Amino acid sequence: MYTKLLSATVSGVEGRLIEVEVDISPGLPQVNVVGLPDPAVRESIDRARAAIHNGGMKFPLDRITVNLAPADMRKEGSAFDLAIAAGILCASGQFRPDALAGALIIGELSLSGEVKPVPGVLAMAEMARRSGLRRVYVPAASWSEAALIEGIEVIAVRSLSDWTRGVAALPEVDGTGLSEEGRTAGGEPRSALDLGDVAGQLQGKRALLIAAAGMHNLVFIGPPGTGKTMLCRRLPSLLPRLEDDEALEVTKIYSVSGKLAGQRSGLIRERPFRAPHHTISISGLVGGGQLPRPGEVTLAHRGVLFLDELPEFGRGALESLRQPLEDRHVTIGRVRGVARFPASFMLAAAMNPCACGFWGGDDREQGCTCSASSLARYRSRMSGPLADRIDLQVELPRQAISFSDAPGMTSAQARELLGVAYDRQSRRYADSGIRWNSELSGRMLAAHVRLTSDAEALLAGMYSRLGLSYRAHDRILKLSRTIADLDDCDGIALEHVAEAVQYRALDRQLPTMSAEAAARS
Fold it and tell me: 135, 154, 425, 478: most buried by Cβ count inside 10 Å?
């Protein structure tokens, strides 16, 4: 007998529909799995055989062929276990195939028949809804994850034997998904780190607000202990919560990566904040593997990627960021397939000005001891093209100790100021497909960024004087637009451009650094 059921796999961060065909014919007992299965898929037959026996059913002693279509696509993982076992039971007359018509079946089987969770259930359930399927059977531990998708019936399965007897592990979902409360209540609380904890560094706090207002890339440069990392780690407390479509994107990424907490009550609502160690590999940062998996740039999608001690990262890892910073996605090609991952993130970084950390300081006892060659080597760890992609390059000097400083701006107060800029961008880009000033390019940049005549003259002069690239010129324009939004201004005036230009610290430093280092040598 022949049976065809539907299961799914994940390609990149999207679900792909897989047809599971099972044919049982007379012959010597033998099971063949075809359709480019990996070892985990081939082993599913052994898991299905044990689960069927331990569930009190019979595994057919005939020739069994299992085909996973499309046959030219590599299949991996254990998500097909439940569909394969169900196909064998249907083809052998122990289960009714009509009960599974128009349904997606996902789950890994243990030898006892228990159905275990698999990564990517959210992406596969969303794909099932797009494909017009009516219901999806998922492991009980993944029920709340699949129920985030509206418009499809979600049925939890705890064990193979219970399922075949019609015993549901949890109440079925009626096709409307979780309640609105459940869809919006998910996500972690706001960061306990508050901007008010940082004493002084008013320029750094101003730069942080501008970066958060337009999702601009940011690097803080200064001696050790000046608050660079403290400021960057408070970014999550300033950023707005994810919108519905953004939350679904981010939750789907974490589902595919196997990083979703079990039985969560809703979508991820807080923007991701990823801070990998500087020993991370290129594959760990941008994604990779024989079958590509998301890297940190994808896990930071719609949020912040923080690189502390930026020059200590490998040169290859840093240079691999250049393309996703421009294109906002990563495409990884391997022999077994090509995957595209979203990577729209804000890059925040912190670095010392030199290897000893004290270049440019005024303290004679702690002056820079680096030679010209040492300074050049340290600076070369971050290439010019990468620095060019960072909108705000801000120097943080050492602060004098003071015990009488009044409390600074808190994160709650900062969010009130940022709300003006967020509202203006939301109205401006309502039907354009973008959300932030940092995403402007081409005609949209020309349409939404209009300078006064004196602002144009200033930018033209600084373009020549600093030797800026055209990319840096455009980033100054986008930064000026954000500064004007924070001031609740429609037009971009001289003071907005002047402030944006002053944040190009690396462009201003480079000639001076070389000259001073050479003089010391």
Answer: 154
Per residue in 430-459, pLDDT (tens digit) is 988 899 999 999 899 999 999 999 999 999
Structure tokens at 507: 């462009």
Return all residues near 429 (Cβ < 8 A) that are at least 6 apart: 435, 436
Q: Walk across the sheet containing 346-351 and list its strands.
A: 273-274, 304-308, 346-351, 218-221, 392-395
Look at residue 167 in the predicted model and tell me its pLDDT. Answer: 55
Question: Model-level pTM?
Answer: 0.87
Q: Which is nearest to 139 in space by CA: 119, 111, 165?
A: 119
For the chain, the C-alpha Rg in angstroms (whole number) is: 28
Q: What is the 3-state secondary structure (H, E, C) of 405-444?
A: CCCCCCHHHHHHHHHHHHHHHHHHCCCCCCCCHHHCCHHH
- 3-class secondary structure, 24: strand
- CB atoms under 10 Å from CB of 134, counted, come to 14
Which residue in 254, 235, 236 sits closest to 246, CA to CA?
254
pLDDT in tens, 353-382: 888 887 766 554 467 888 888 888 888 888
Give how far Cα 485 sits from Cα of 207, 423, 482, Å: 14, 9, 5
Q: What angle do CA 304, 324, 414 make, to 5 degrees?
A: 25
